[in-house]
């Protein structure tokens, strides 16, 4: 029997083709942050059951030149208070300026392509710490009076240390939404307090009637080119 030989050049071509095919299927692994858990220190509570990992890919609908984008609370349901902590050196600006991180803007935007509605809180003077929690109802800081919100589920967001007024006592927020919002699940917004270094907001969310399921939410941060620090809270649209 005569032994057949494969030409050396043909062998090289086969090896190179195999190498190209393998490289085309792979790539460097993308790190996955832990979902549903505040990514800031030991004081954060453990993840709630059912929370899912989240991979940051860039802030939806924001300035592409924004920096320091990061997810601080992955998609989850904060039935217990989740705290994201920052070290804030006071005063953030010399007197007579406001000594605490100053809330200057609140915006809401809908992003159906990503199945979320986003509310953003913009601060000057660095990001404050903040907490997220589902509550039976939002109450006003200082008085404890109920805060009226549309919807049938309620999320409380509190920033500290922070203020929403300038050194003259005037409201510092130049833009904010009205109390009624017409998004699929985000239905209401209210400022619930600017009291003793705490700024509190309430969100009214709409879940299916009779449902005991809360909507997943997510928190993230970014820095605008002018140095304004933004905290965003995303709510699933359904």
């Amino acid at each position: 029997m005569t032994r057949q030989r494969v030409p050396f050049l043909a062998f090289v071509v086969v090896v190179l083709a195999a190498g190209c095919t393998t490289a085309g299927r792979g790539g460097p692994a993308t790190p996955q942050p832990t979902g549903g858990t505040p990514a800031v220190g030991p004081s954060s509570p453990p993840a709630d059951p059912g929370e899912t990992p989240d991979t940051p890919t860039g802030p939806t609908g924001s300035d592409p030149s924004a920096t320091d984008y990061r997810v601080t609370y992955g998609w989850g349901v904060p039935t217990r208070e989740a705290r994201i902590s920052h070290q804030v050196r006071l005063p953030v600006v010399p007197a007579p300026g406001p000594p605490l991180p100053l809330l200057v803007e609140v915006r809401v935007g809908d992003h159906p392509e990503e199945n979320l509605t986003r509310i953003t809180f913009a601060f000057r003077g660095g990001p404050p710490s903040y907490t997220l929690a589902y509550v039976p109802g939002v109450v006003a800081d200082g008085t404890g009076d109920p805060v009226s919100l549309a919807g049938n589920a309620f999320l409380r967001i509190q920033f500290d240390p922070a203020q929403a007024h300038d050194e003259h006592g005037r409201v510092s927020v130049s833009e904010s939404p009205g109390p009624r919002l017409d998004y699929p699940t985000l239905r209401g917004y209210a400022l619930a307090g600017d009291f003793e270094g705490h700024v509190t907001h309430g969100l009214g969310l709409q879940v299916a009637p009779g449902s005991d399921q809360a909507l997943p939410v997510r928190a993230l941060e970014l820095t605008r080119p002018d140095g304004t620090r933004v905290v965003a809270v995303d709510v699933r649209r359904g």
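The first strand starts at residue 67 and ends at 76. The chain has one domain: 35-236.
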